[in-house]
Amino acid sequence: MGTTDQTLPFFTQFFQFQASYDDLPAFTFFVVANAIASGYLVLSLPFSIGGIVRPHAAGIKLMLLIFDTLVVALTTAAAAVATAIVYLAHNGNANTNWLAICQQFNDFCQRISGAVVASFIAAIILIFLVVLSAVALRRH
User: Fold this and answer.
1) How many CA atoms lie within 13 A of 4 on its CB side?
2) If we measure between CA atoms, which residue out of 4, 69, 1 comes closest to residue 40?
3) Collapsed DSSP state (helix, strand, coil) of residue 112
4) CA angle, corner 77, sides to 76 and 82, nearest 5?
5) 96 DSSP 8-state letter
6) pLDDT under 70 in the chain at which residues?
7) Which terminus of the chain has a smaller tally of CB atoms within 10 A, N or C?
8) Tens digits of per-residue pLDDT, 119-131?
9) Which residues contact 47 (CB under 8 A, 6 or more apart)?
10) What SS3 state is found at 92?
11) Which of 93, 89, 92 is nearest to 109 (CA)?
């Protein structure tokens, strides 16, 4: 999503239409939220390994469970916001005179749609991991 943009020439090379992810704050939030989630997952790896090495350290596991839940919420919110904009890009809204742009910006729409689908898949995987963490913490 962060590299998604498309330019369409209109009459001349000097007058062009451009679609970019940073034209819409919802897509900027989507990129930032997924970057935060990715960064958190990388930074939480040492704590996860510490929880595996020391199985009786419930504090680390509880902290990871709480932060994992927050990351799930952030990822889901970002995907939901981006989904609303992708829907408008594909279908428009006749009541507000918002035109669908995907007929003109086909590559742009395919890339943003793929990014949203990937984000929802990531959210589902994160939900599964949170449930596994909660079950493991409960068994302890």
Assistant:
1) 23
2) 69
3) helix
4) 100
5) G
6) 1-22, 140
7) C
8) 999 999 999 989 9
9) 60, 63, 64
10) coil
11) 89
Q: Which two tokens stand for residue 101?
A: 């742009």
The two beta strands, 12-20 and 5-10, are antiparallel
Q: Which residue has the tokens 């939220």?
A: 33
Single-letter amino acid code for the residue at 119: S
Model pLDDT, residue 23: 73
Q: Which among 59, 76, 55 is positioned nearest to 119, based on CA atoms? A: 76
Convert 16-61 into a string of H (helix), E (strand) and C (coil). EEEEEHHHCHHHHHHHHHHHHHHHHHHHHHHHHHHHHHCCCCHHHH
**Joined tokens for residue 139:** 């068994």
Judge whether 130 and 138 are in contact, CB under 8 Å.
Answer: no
Q: What are phi and psi of 24, to 5 degrees?
A: -120, 125
pTM as predicted: 0.80
